[in-house]
Hints:
- By secondary structure, the chain is of the alpha+beta class.
- The protein is built from three helices and four strands.
- The strands form two sheets. It has a two-stranded antiparallel ribbon with strand order 1-2.
- The longest helix has 12 residues.
- The termini are far apart.
Amino acid sequence: xxxxxxxxxxxxxxxxxxxxxxxxxxxxxxxxxxxxxxxxxxxxxxxxxxxxxxxxxxxxxxxxxxxxxxxxxxxxxxxxxxxxxxxxxxxxxxxxxxxxxxxxx
Length: 105
């Protein structure tokens, strides 16, 4: 069964998108800060956040007929879990591969 991503009235075949993206190099950068606001509208499996490979590029596609999002630009269809993991990692003080901070005066 193909992996799919659903957002409101749209659905994308992520398996097919990964096949199209295979062997390609990313041609640009998406700033995660721009997209973090959408995280509350995306269902994230929190139990998988610790196992996410942050080196895998996000996959974004044009957002056709975006209605209330006319300036949405490319929309992420694969990588929301990586954005959530990056946000969690940035907030974590220690644990996992982050060591406890030591303040020397």
